[in-house]
Amino acid sequence: MFTHFYKEVSLDSASFKTGSTDRPTFYFNTFMDDMDYMCISKVILPTTYYVFSSPSYVGCTIGGTVVSWPQGNYTPEEWIAVVQPQVVGLTITYSLITGKLTFAKAGAFSIVFGATEKTYELIGFPAGTTSGTNTIVAPFIADFSGPNYCVLHTRLASVFNGSSIYFSETSEDVGQDRLKMIPIDANRNSIVIYRNEREEYFEWFDTQCRNLEFYFTLGTRKELMTFNGNSFQLVVSGQSSTTADYEKNSNNVHTYFRS
Question: How far apart are the C-alpha atoms of 40 and 10, rounded to whole Å?
């Protein structure tokens, strides 16, 4: 007969074996050896990461003046208070109705984002240069909270063969290591609690690999999310179907332990 086993391990990124709190690697000993399928059952994520993260999101050129601000999290009013005084004669306002920023200055001027400056994504502009006379209204809304999702990556997870996650893509990435898309539904300095209600299990092929590295990226960004000293928590669960020549008291054996 077939007996179905279930195992679950709770991980805190601050208890890493190697790596760092933001990018921990855990060693699972024998946890993986008899697992056929794996999934992330729960994620607890602190929203203490910086939306305006260095170096791509902390600068641009306004009216010929290079402006910058410390990496961090800002409301529109807080951001304006830092940027506006850096450019002589500049006035910046934010509309609660439209969600857009307006820049006003005597004469024609431009707002320029360099090739590596992605601030435009957060303050409502296209890439490159936007020019105007006296007033420039951002064509898009400002998004000071940043992308509303992050992606959990599991490096060394090439052993999850036969399973893939795609985000608006038509072809598979080389070195695919994305394991879960996590919606961000909490304000800054609070906590996102995500539960995997569907329990999608990734097929696991035993390669004798007993360690996995976990990390997050924000939206489509490639850079590592840093939680500024706080840790994140994961619940990793696994299932296996093994042939048994004796009867179990239950078809589901639940084993809970901490790494």
Answer: 10
